[in-house]
Write a structure and sequence with these properties.
Blueprint: E1 2-6, H1 9-13, H2 16-29, E2 37-41, E3 51-55, E4 58-63, H3 68-76
Parallel strand pairs: 1-2
Antiparallel strand pairs: 1-3, 3-4
């Protein structure tokens, strides 16, 4: 899975760096480095929806430092199959 976190202006201001750091830790903690490629990307076109994340073709919206772990565990991990 390719996990892309938007680092465009709007998402950067809403905490995309914190989201990336949380995702890095969770990928390591759950030993998913062989299954998830974490990338920063510019503008996913969902600027009004908080930090935008794209997991392959699925969008996870409204992510922030406070809910990044919950979003990862409830919305991203199930996509791994």
């Amino acid at each position: 899975m390719t996990l892309s976190v938007c680092v465009g202006s709007s998402c950067h201001l809403k905490g995309s760096y914190d989201v990336i750091e949380t995702f890095k830790k969770l990928i390591e903690q759950h030993k998913l480095a062989d299954k998830i490629e974490l990338r920063a990307c510019f503008c996913l076109g969902r600027c009004a929806d908080g930090v935008s994340v794209k997991a392959d073709d699925a969008y996870i919206l409204g992510v922030n430092g406070a809910n990044a772990q919950e979003k990862f565990e409830k919305e991203i991990m199930p996509l791994l199959g």
